[in-house]
Write a structure and sequence with these properties.
Helix content is 4%, strand content 43%. It has helices at 41-45, 189-195, 247-251; strands at residues 2-4, 50-51, 58-66, 69-74, 80-84, 104-115, 121-132, 141-142, 144-150, 153-158, 173-177, 183-188, 214-218, 221-226, 231-235, 241-246, 256-262, 265-270, 281-286, 292-299, 302-307, 313-317, 332-337, 343-350, 355-358, 364-368, 379-385. The protein is globular and about 55 Å long.
Length: 387
Amino acid sequence: MKFQTTTLPTRNSTSLSPLRCSFFLIGLTLACSLPSWRANAADIANAGEEIALPTASIVSVFASGLNNPRGLKFGPDGNLYVAEGGTGGLNPPCVVVPAVGPYTGNVTGARISKISAGGFRTTVVDNLPSSQTSPDSGSLISGVADVAFIGNDLYAVLAGAGCSHGVPSVPNGVIRVFPNSSWTLRANLSRFLMNHPVANPNPEDFEPDGTWYSMIAVDGDLYAVEPNHGELDKITPGGSVSRVLDISASQGHIVPTAVAFHNGNFYVGNLNTFPIVPGSSKVLKITPTGQITVFRSGLTTILGLAFDSAGRLYVLENTTGQGNQFPTPGTGKVIRIDPSGSRTLIASGLFLPTAMTLGPDGALYVSNVGFGPPPNGIGQVLKITVP
């Protein structure tokens, strides 16, 4: 079944890191009610500087049956690998995070899935840690945050583990996944955070183990973004961890989430704090030596970045529209920013999307229904074919 988007015409506040949104889940319990894929009048009114595509993008459901899908990458075998937050758990934490706690966890609630070219899902590895916030905070789930390949080797970054998440036996960290579905911890990121504090942590929203979000592979090493503390770190395959940049030192608590690499530099997008202020997110350019500048601004709730071969930047926005102060289903967008700075709306009406990657076929693949509804396999991967 395919959906087509309509063509379109042309925060200092409560601090909450990604997917820990302390909001009333009004409408999110309607798990079986997926969004319409057409822009409404509000979308058109809030399109801002975005211009229309000459022909609408085609949005289709590429895969389903996922539980809180997050970061996703194509492997060297041509299949799509998807990190899943999983199902959460009931084990109590040994450290309570006041803003959203107490977390409860499960050492075996998350997994990584493989999606074939035909959209068929199989499990690469399961029994990975998963945790969730308190019911008052929406029972929002974290588990495996992202995946990346170095050659043929699959790595993943855990966000739902650690003492503060109710999984004291496994820290948040980078794991190596083997072809036989076994895995091993390569880098203890919980320990790194505790031993290397950032300049400007937010006391009301501080997690000792962090809430890792995006990870990419560059020149044989891994680079991961941690939103709660606010940093970009390098992880070698051997498990050595070092900080590329303490983003909080110059930017404060902006909740950096998405990372991409293009023409020798890193690009990091931020979610920002809640309530949402439209246009308050930005894309930062970070050199390998840690120099930081603002590359693009005037964006909202960024959770994904990708560059195409023409140097155009695709930005995934989780929630858009005036008046939507907290994550709102059916308002997610993908926009494209040309090197000149002009912006094009690629797709709208997405249901709480959480990550995006560019496929070898030139299409965009987006994790959709990435949080909110109960973890009953309603998560999807969307394929967006761009004319």
